[in-house]
Amino acid sequence: MAAITAALVKQLRDQTGVGMMDCKKALNETDGDFEAAVDWLRKKGLSKAAKKADRIASEGLVAVSTNGTIGAVVEVNSETDFVARNEVFQAAVKEIADLATKVDGDLEAIKSSTMANGETVETSLTQMIATIGENMSLRRSAAVTADPGVVSSYVHNATTEDMGAIGVLVGLKSEGDADKLAELGRKLAMHVAAGSPSVPVSVDTDAVDPAIIAKEREVFSDQARAQGKPDNIIEKMVEGRLNKFFKEVVLLKQAFVMDPDRTVEQVLADEASAMGTPIEITGFVRMALGEGVEKKEEDFAAEVAAATGQS
């Protein structure tokens, strides 16, 4: 049996493109025989999957899962929306979202979690890549908790139950009636989903990143100064514009989409009064499919011309 050294594992990884742990496992399974390890990886479909790993995957599904006082949202990408309609893919994404609630949405913990098939999430995705023939990845995840209280969810442009293009979670901490809280939370989640391009960046003003405030203050000051305003007027103008900015990006300050005459803060206060107990938003997450992924621009006409030998 050949010694399974780090150099040998690296050599196998360089040749196949498969992850280090799988390469080490292949060498262990084949008693250190390099060529046999290559074949082992091919039979498992891992080499095939690795070749697809550099292909851009910006389609797929965002899925939500709630379990009482905790909710999680995950984004699992594929190369085409055709795969997003695949029932096997959908079942896997649902299971991944459910597992995410058990590890507080921690991405690495999700990847190493064991699925019903006995494999980890990461290995299961790799096997699906080999079977379905497209690159896939668990790109990101997040969780919201509210104890006591409820975490509500909403999916916009749903492909199937709890999965679609935009997933939102909202946590409501309260001793109030759980059903009423869940209904209120869902409405607030719908509000957050509708927020683009003025998506909330924080629950309240105090939670806004000071760097963001400083940048906005600088921009507003420069704009007012360019208009030739004196310093005392500039200060008032900046404060006024900051207040307007907060109404755009702070959830509690936003006009509630279902009743624009009230802010989200007023809606919470009214509901708290009706229930006879305080209600606090513990957090929210809005995840949109493919957000921030650089998509490859395809020139279909050029592709056809090249395929037919035309210039």
CATH fold-level topology of the largest domain = Tetrahydropterin Synthase, Chain A
| Total number of helices | 13
The quaternary organization reads as single chain
What structural class results from the helix and strand content? alpha+beta
Helix content: 40-55%
Let me know the average pLDDT: 86
Please tally the β strands and state the result.
8
From the N-terminal CA to the C-terminal CA, the straight-line distance is 56 Å
Structure description:
The protein has 311 residues and is of the alpha+beta class. It folds into three domains: 6-51, Ubiquitin-associated (UBA) domain (Helicase, Ruva Protein, domain 3, Orthogonal Bundle); 59-204 and 250-287, 2-Layer Sandwich (Tetrahydropterin Synthase, Chain A); 209-249, GTP Cyclohydrolase I, Chain A, domain 1. The protein is built from 13 helices and eight strands. The strands form two sheets. Strands 1, 2, 3, 4, 5 and 8 form a six-stranded antiparallel β-sheet that branches. Helix 1 (6-16) packs across helix 2 (20-29), helix 2 packs across helix 3 (34-43) and helix 10 (210-226) crosses helix 11. It is elongated, with a radius of gyration of 25 Å.
Entry keywords:
Tetrahydropterin Synthase, Chain A; Helicase, Ruva Protein, domain 3; GTP Cyclohydrolase I, Chain A, domain 1; two-stranded antiparallel sheet; about 45% helix; 13 helices; about 300 residues; about 20% strand
